[in-house]
Amino acid sequence: MSATPDPSPRRRSRLSAWLLSLLVVLLLVAAAGWYGWQWWQARQAASDADATMQLDALSERVAALRRDQRAQAQRLQQADATNRVLRDELLGLGERSAIIEDSFARFADPDRHGAQALRLDETELLLSLGQQRLLVAGDLDGARRAYALAAGVLAGVDDPTYLSLRQSLGQERAALEAIEVEPRAQALARLATFAATVASAAPVPRHDAAQSNGQPWWRRAFAAIVEVQPTDRAVAVQPADIAAARAGLQLEISLARAAAERRDVDGYRAALARADAWLTRLLPPSDERERQRRQLREIASLPLSLSLPPLGTTLRQLRESRATRRES
């Protein structure tokens, strides 16, 4: 019987070759995968770098656009400011043109030619001055002199249009001459006379020691215990009360003077009403006190301003006449 060859070594060699081939294939596949992964990573990195560059470029473009926008906004603001300046200058030129036209119109006014225009200007100035001296300063003599000068200047105007002005001015001068004294000056003078009179008539407070020297011994002994005073407390008896009443009376008279200076009728009369209350506190009931109270009420009823309806008529007519002639 012949011996058969053993197939196991052949199978082993085939298996080893097959395993070696499979290992080589796996190594090739792994190498190819690793190289593919590296290539994909490099490509992704390049794509990210490109995207980053594009994003930076876009950011720079946005920043440039914002800078351009701010520059445009500044240019618009400058242009707006320039337009405002130009508009203001244009308005100023318009105002200057209007002033120039007004000046030419005034020079074209026939009343401004020659001595007549100067006389009318001087008359208007004197009338305004006289009215202000009378109403503001209470200077009756100064107002009369100003109106007399205005009448002399207006008499030199030959235009018959202003004839009615001379008549009105004559009426105003007659009304001023009829006034004997300015009301505020009269009120102040009578108030000063009353203040001097009441100061001499008011009792002067005496010291307690001086009073006690002329009193009996029993009154001096009980003066510190018993005090005799009026029950109504209307008249000041104590030296301190008398001094306070005198000071209050003088203060109210001074306040009345100040109110009269500024022609404050309400303040003037209120101060004199308070002075009457101090007068009843200072003086005991008597005919002398009632006489002084009547005198004080008469002073309080005096006017502080002139009631002169014709005052200012000539000045108003002169201005209206000149304005009408300019318009025509």
TrEMBL record:
Its EC number is 2.1.1.107. It comes from the Bacteria. GO terms for molecular function: uroporphyrin-III C-methyltransferase activity. It holds the Pfam family HemX. GO terms for biological process: methylation. Keywords: Methyltransferase, Transferase. This is Uroporphyrinogen-III C-methyltransferase.
